[in-house]
Every structure is written in structure tokens, then in C-alpha cells.
Amino acid sequence: MQYPQTNGPATDEDAQIESLNGALTGWFSRHREKRCLLAVDPSQRDLSSEDADGDELFACLPRSDVLIDHDAFPEARRPYLLELDLSTQAGVAALAQSVRVAFEDRRPESMAEGLGQRVGGWMASAASLDEVAAHWSRLALQRDESGRNCVLRFYDSRSLALLWTVFSQAQQQALLGPVRAWHVLDAGARPSVHVASRESRTSFALSSAQWQAVHRHGLINRALALHARACDRQPEPGEIEAAVAAAARAERCGLIDRDDRIAFIGHALSWHPQFDLHPTVLQLLRHRAADDFYTGEIGQLTADEIEEIRQGSWYECLGASAVR
């Protein structure tokens, strides 16, 4: 569920910050029985690092780490939760600063540089800080379809935006667990909220098809970040859908190299959502040897051919032919 959007331009960061801060303050004032918990991912940068403004606002807040039994998550890289007491000036100030950090981390240049999403959202729960952290600890480390340990990065707001649509409704409720509402920024940096509809004790086991989508989501987010920087704006919903679909097609085309797959998704974003159906592209893909890089093969296209792909008239002709 999305929040009502502001009337101003989407690029007006200050207006977005003010709007979301007001919406969160209003929501929690109407649900005073719920704790306000802030999710933090310090894997790239921490809220209390030297380059984060207002770090003193977070240093003394109640904290509970999300324990992940994996070598890639030493103590300094563990996600954690902070409790914001919104009945105090310190809690109100910390909420406002966290909203500002969340939008700063969604700036296209920051995303493209891979600086991470320090704020994973604002959760409402009657459960204690430690209970919610323990719930996340139980779900974060999973075994994928090949039996490998895999960490679900749902505490990263950009990851969650893609993972949420992969999960079934029952799995979404299981992920929420003791959380009644999880306020986040979606894949296009629009405020949204995931609401618990019922208590769920459903197993969180994912299917093979779901794991394939999980493994693709990092490539999708990388391509979206590069596209956002190129366009100097957040991705639109249609672009996000196009990126998800292109990632699956890249896999079906036999692309294995990470950069190749990101480039394929990027071409669906910058050229045409179905660019790989263009006759010239189809020919290149069909004649690509297994050890040929996609980026090398697609580099054979001329500027005129790329412009033709972008114009899209060829795709309309394909659609007309299919109707006949």
C-alpha cells in the first residue's frame, strides 16, 4: 500500500522528507500502543559513522542486533534495530534524521556508487526490540535451492522492494511476524507500508522458482541504480517491471557473466523493454557462442540501429503481425 503522493515534483527531496516525516509522525501518534523501531543496515556505512550527520541522535538509542551466523556478517556489518521513543524530543529528532538519511541514500549518484541503504524502514510493533530482532535473525539466513546458505537482505529497503513481490502473501505475513506495519521506501523511493493482516506461523521455505528470482534481484537493483544515475531520477513502476522481466530473459538467453546480465537489463531500460526481440538483436543472440560476452556481441550494433530500437516502430509491426 502506498502513501498519498505529494503534489510537488518527485525530485523535490526536501518536500518528500517533510511529507514522509509528517506521515510517520501522524501514524505513530494514532497508534501510541506500538513501538517505533528503526531498521538499520550498516554493511556499507553506519548511521553513527563519521560521515553521517546527526550521528549523536542514534548513538544512545536502545539497540538490538540481528544475529546472522555467516562469515560475511561480523559484528560491525550486522543489521540492527533501534527503538525511537516519539514521546521525547530525542526520538522525534531521530525519526526526522532517519527520514532524511533514507532519501539521501536514494539519490541516483549514491545508489550507483553502491553506498548502500542505511535505513531499512520504520516498523510498528507491540513486541520488544529484542523479539523483533530475534524474529529477523531466524529468517535472514536461509538455504537456497542448491542447499547453500543464503542471506535474504530484506533489511535493505531496495532489496525488500523486489523481494516482497517474490514472496507469497503467506510468506509476506510470516516475514512481518510481530510487526504490525512496516513503513518503507519502495523501488522508486515512494513511501509505502506493508501491513500485517493476521498472525502467521507459515513456514518461510521458498520454492526453486522463488530462489531464482531472489538470486536475480541484486542484478536488477544494480541496473536500476545505473539507469537512475543516467536519467538523474528514480525509476518508474513500468521500468521496474521491465527490469525484472529482462533479468529473467537474460537468464533464458544463457547469459552467465554478471556484467553481461546487468547490461542486458540496462538495455531493456534505456533502449526498449523488449529490445531483444528486434531482428538484429535476435540474430546477434542466436549466433553468440557460449564463451562470447554479450557486451561484446551487442557492441556490434550501430548508432542508427540502436536509435531504431529506441523508436519502437519495429515492435509495433511485430504486434500487428502477431494479430494477423
Structure description:
By secondary structure, this protein is an alpha+beta fold. The chain is built from 14 helices and 8 strands. The radius of gyration is 21 Å and the shape is globular. The two termini are 40 Å apart. The model is unreliable at 6-10 (pLDDT under 50). InterPro entries: DUF4123 (IPR025391).
- Count of discrete alpha- or pi-helical segments spanning 4 or more residues: 14
Radius of gyration: 21 Å
Shape: globular
Q: Which structural category fits the helices and strands?
A: alpha+beta
Report the sheet with the most strands, covering strand number, pairing sense and barrel closure.
6 strands, antiparallel
Per DSSP E runs of 2 or more residues, the count of β-strands stands at 8
**How many distinct folded domains?**
2
| Low-confidence runs of at least 5 consecutive residues | 6-10
